[in-house]
Amino acid sequence: MLVYPVGADLSTSALRFLATELVARRREQGTRWRRLPAGRQALLVLAHLRCGHAYAQLAAGFGIGTITAYRYVVEAVDVLATFAPTLAEAVKVASTKAFVILDGTLLPIDRIAADRPFHSGKHKKHGMNVQVIADPQGRLLWASPALPGAVHDIKAARTHGIIDALEGVGLECWADKGYRGAGGTVRVAYWGRWGTLSAGQQTVNRSHAKIRALVEQAMATLKTWRLLRKLRCSTTRITSLVQAVLTLHLACSN
Length: 254
Description:
The chain has ten helices and seven strands. The longest helix has 18 residues, at 12-29. It is 46% helix and 12% strand. The model has no long low-confidence stretch (mean pLDDT 91). Helix 1 crosses helix 10 (238-253). It has two domains: 12-81, no CATH class; 87-223, no CATH class.
């Protein structure tokens, strides 16, 4: 296998944060020796998450075995996932905002046609449904655990308790028509064909669309971590990966 240098568009704060937590993890476990020091392990994990490099590529680049590279990634992802904010914590932070924006995104996975629970009829592909909450500037505040792609956005929001959590603090939420009937503080556009809407309703829908479009920035924040653009791991690991990415994003943006 050919080995070549590569760069990752991340700040050194992400590397320092992860390396520090890995050092603490090793001390807690009483680890005496590792093939890679904590800093190199952190770099390996960031290359996997940000660039989407496969374990074989990482193993060749860092001079370790493929299984070792896999174990290093799993360990670091689990460490990062423990720091991801809960919905209650995210809503508490968001309660200081004027409103939030809620939307769902599909993280593509390598499933076959027989895996119907993971097939999204809306997106016409297999994936996992992740709910995203953004602030009025479109900044990512929270990402939910992953559910099979066949789950509709409104059902996912109810499953995670998002609607009740937002209503509990009286926080206005803007969402698309996929959340029609959600109730609480969730606001959606007027339903109906454009020609059947009144002039006032059309004006409201235009304003609603402009505000709701800001959530695309939060979606893009997730997708800049290239591993999430096409997941080839077990579906049981995807929630941890999303939480790890969320942790790194929040740690580097504060």
